C-alpha cells in the first residue's frame, strides 16, 4: 500500500521529532520551516536542537530520502501544524498569540484538496481549530471535504522519541468523521491509546493538564515561603507529608519556566477571567516565587558584603528552566540573573548544559565555589547534586532554592 505524504509545518522541538518518527514508520515526509538555518541543517541529516536519539532518526530519514525540508509549503495528504503559540506581551492578563498558526494555515491553503487531513498539534486556546477552518473557508477551500482535527502533544523533552510512540493521545475533530480518520492515522504509529473526542475538548484537555501542574507547583512554592518564614525545612516537611497515603506535594523551586506550563494556563484565564481564579492565582504565585528568590539573594549579598567589607560576588547555579536540559526559554533562573545584573551586582553563572550565552559571564562550578561569596542554587542539575553529596556546599553563602538533597 502506498504510504501517504505528510507535510509537517514547523520543525522545532515537536515538529522535527514527529517528522523523523513518521519517516521511520515508512511515511514520505516533507517538512516546512520558515527558518533557512533549520531547513539547511535538516537536509544535511543534522539537527538544530538537543534531544536524545533524534540525530539518528533524522540522519536515517534524510539518507533514505523519506524526509526532506523546505522553506515553503509542499503538497501532501496529511498536514501537521507544530508552530509556536506564545502570548502577547502586554499589561494585565497575557493574551494567546495564534498568529503563527493562522499564518501556517494560510500557507498550506492552496495545496489542500478533497480528502486531506489537517491536524493542529500546537498547544492552543479553545476554538483555534475552528479558527483554522474559518481561515481556510475564507480563502476558498471547501472545508466540507477535508478532515480537520486537534491532537495535543504531551511529550517530555529528553524523552520525546520514546513518548511520541508510547504516550496516550487525544484526538478531537471538528466533525465525527474527522476525529475517526485522524485517530486512525495516529494509531498507525502510536502504541499508547488514541482517545477520541471533539476539538474543543481536546484543546482544553492540554491546557487543563498544564494548568493542573502549575497549580500544584504553586502550592509547593507557596508552602516553601511560609516554611522559610517559620524556620522549617520545606524539603523535609514535604517528605514527611507525602508519607500520608493520599498526599503528594510536588517540589518547590525558583519559579516555573519553559514555554508550556508557564504559558498555557494564561490561555484559560484569558478566555474566562471571571471563573479561572485558582489558575490565575497559581500563575501569580509561581511568578512571585521568583521575585522572592531574587530578594533572598539580595539579602544574602548584603549580609556577605557586611562580613567581607566589599561588594559580594554572586554565582547563580543553573540557568535552564529545569534540570539537565539546555533550554533557557522562559527560565526563572535566567530572569533572576538578569534582574540582579541590571541592579549592578557582580554576578557569574554556572550552566553545565550550554557553552555560551552573551547575556552572562559563564564560569565553571569549581571556579564559582572558590571565588563566590553567595552561591544561589537555582536548578537541580545532576552536577550540583554530586557536589552536594560530596559536602562542598556546606559553607557560608550557599542558598539552595531547589532542594538538592531532597
Ligand atoms: N517543546 C515541547 O516540549 C512541547 C510539548 C508539548 C507541546 N508543545 C507545543 O508545540 C508547539 C511547538 O512548540 P516547539 O517547542 O516545537 O516550538 P519551536 O519554537 O521549537 O518550533 C517551532 C518552529 O516553527 C517554525 N515556524 C514558525 N512559523 C512558521 C510557519 N508559518 N511556517 C513554518 N514554520 C514556522 C519556527 O521557525 C520553529 O522552527 C507549541 O504550541 C508548544 O506549546 C511543545
The general outline is globular
The fourth-level CATH homologous superfamily of the largest domain is: NAD(P)-binding Rossmann-like Domain
CATH topology of the largest domain: Rossmann fold
User: In angstroms, what is the radius of gyration?
Assistant: 23 Å
* Spatial order of the strands forming the largest sheet: 3-2-1-4-7-8-9-10
Q: What compounds sit in this structure?
A: nicotinamide-adenine-dinucleotide
Number of strands: 14
The proportion of residues in beta strands is: 5-15%
Highest-level CATH class of the largest domain: Alpha Beta
- Total of domains: 2
Quaternary structure: single chain
Number of helices: 14
- State the end-to-end distance: 53 Å
For the largest beta-sheet, the strand count, sense and barrel status come to: 8 strands, mixed
Helix vs. strand class: alpha/beta
**What is the overall pLDDT average?**
96
CATH architecture of the largest domain: 3-Layer(aba) Sandwich
Describe the 3D structure.
By secondary structure, the protein is an alpha/beta fold. The protein has two domains: 5-203, Rossmann fold, CATH 3.40.50; 253-400, NAD(P)-binding Rossmann-like Domain (Rossmann fold). It contains 14 helices and 14 strands. It has an eight-stranded mixed β-sheet, sandwiched between helices. Strand 11 (313-317), helix 12 and strand 12 (346-350) form a beta-alpha-beta unit. The chain starts with a strand and ends in a 6-residue tail after the last strand. Nicotinamide-adenine-dinucleotide is lined by residues 9-15, 32-35, 38, 82-85, 100, 103-104, 107, 122-123, 153, 155, 157, 259-260.
Amino acid at each position: 500500500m502506498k504510504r501517504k505524504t505528510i507535510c509537517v509545518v514547523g520543525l522545532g522541538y515537536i515538529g522535527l521529532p514527529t517528522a523523523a518518527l513518521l519517516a521511520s514508520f515508512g511515511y514520505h515526509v516533507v517538512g516546512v520551516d520558515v527558518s533557512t538555518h533549520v531547513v539547511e541543517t535538516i537536509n544535511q541529516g543534522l539537527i538544530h536542537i538537543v534531544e536524545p536519539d533524534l540525530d539518528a532518526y533524522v540522519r536515517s530519514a534524510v539518507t533514505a530520502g523519506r524526509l526532506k525540508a523546505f522553506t515553503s509549503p509542499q503538497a501532501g495528504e496529511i498536514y501537521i501544524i507544530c508552530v509556536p503559540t506564545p502570548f502577547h506581551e502586554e499589561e494585565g492578563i497575557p493574551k494567546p498569540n495564534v498568529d503563527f498558526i493562522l499564518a501556517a494555515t494560510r500557507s498550506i491553503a492552496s495545496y489542500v484538496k478533497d480528502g486531506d487531513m489537517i491536524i493542529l498539534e500546537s498547544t492552543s486556546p479553545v476554538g483555534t481549530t475552528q479558527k483554522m477552518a474559518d481561515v481556510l473557508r475564507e480563502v476558498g477551500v471547501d472545508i466540507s471535504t477535508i478532515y480537520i482535527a486537534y491532537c495535543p502533544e504531551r511529550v517530555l523533552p529528553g524523552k520525546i522519541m520514546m513518548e511520541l510512540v508510547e504516550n496516550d493521545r487525544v484526538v478531537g475533530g471538528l466533525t465525527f468523521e474527522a476525529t475517526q480518520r485522524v485517530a486512525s492515522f495516529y494509531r498507525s504509529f502510536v502504541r499508547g491509546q488514541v482517545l477520541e473526542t471533539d476539538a474543543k475538548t481536546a484543546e482544553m484537555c492540554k491546557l487543563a493538564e498544564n494548568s493542573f501542574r502549575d497549580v500544584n507547583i504553586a502550592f509547593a512554592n507557596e508552602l516553601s515561603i511560609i516554611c522559610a518564614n517559620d524556620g522549617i525545612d520545606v524539603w523535609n516537611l514535604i517528605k514527611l507529608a507525602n508519607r500520608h497515603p493520599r498526599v503528594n506535594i510536588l517540589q518547590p523551586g525558583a519559579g516555573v519556566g519553559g514555554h508550556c506550563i508557564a504559558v498555557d494556563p494564561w490561555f484559560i484565564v484569558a478566555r474566562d477571567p471571571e471563573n479561572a481564579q485558582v489558575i490565575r492565582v497559581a500563575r501569580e504565585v509561581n511568578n512571585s516565587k521568583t521575585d522572592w528568590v531574587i530578594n533572598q539573594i539580595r539579602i544574602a549579598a548584603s549580609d556577605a558584603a557586611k562580613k567581607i567589607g566589599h561588594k559580594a560576588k554572586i554565582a547563580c547555579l543553573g540557568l535552564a528552566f529545569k534540570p539537565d536540559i539546555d533550554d533557557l526559554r522562559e527560565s526563572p533562573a535566567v530572569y533572576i540573573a538578569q534582574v540582579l545584573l541590571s541592579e549592578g551586582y557582580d554576578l557569574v553563572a554556572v550552566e553545565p548544559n550550554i557553552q555560551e550565552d552573551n547575556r552572562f559571564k559563564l564560569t565553571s562550578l569549581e571556579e564559582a565555589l572558590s571565588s563566590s561569596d553567595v552561591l544561589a542554587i537555582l536548578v537541580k542539575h545532576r552536577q550540583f547534586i554530586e557536589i552536594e553529596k560530596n559536602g562542598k556546599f556546606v559553607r557560608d553563602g550557599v542558598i539552595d532554592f531547589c532542594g538538592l538533597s531532597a
